[in-house]
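Protocol step 4 of 6: structure prediction from sequence.
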Amino acid sequence: MKYVSVLELRNNLAEILNLVASGNSSVVVTKHEKPVVMLNQYKETISPFAEFYGMWKDDGVSGEEYVNRIRRTEYSRKRTEYLRNRSKSRKK
């Protein structure tokens, strides 16, 4: 890990960004000798939530429809619908 001041970052931005982008090092930027920000190589990741909810994208089924399908009773479906409508009417 390399430490650089804000002034040093400003003067050598391209060089420091290339160093970080290569994955060889992270850079901590300091201001008045106190760490302010850390620069790391960008890695594209898939959120676990996006991966989980992505299972419906080819199905044509929304998450709400899926939940309604697996609810145990008709009562719980109606209760959820009632609560949603009640909260919408209160917002108006």
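Step 5 (inspection) to follow. The longest helix spans residues 74-91.
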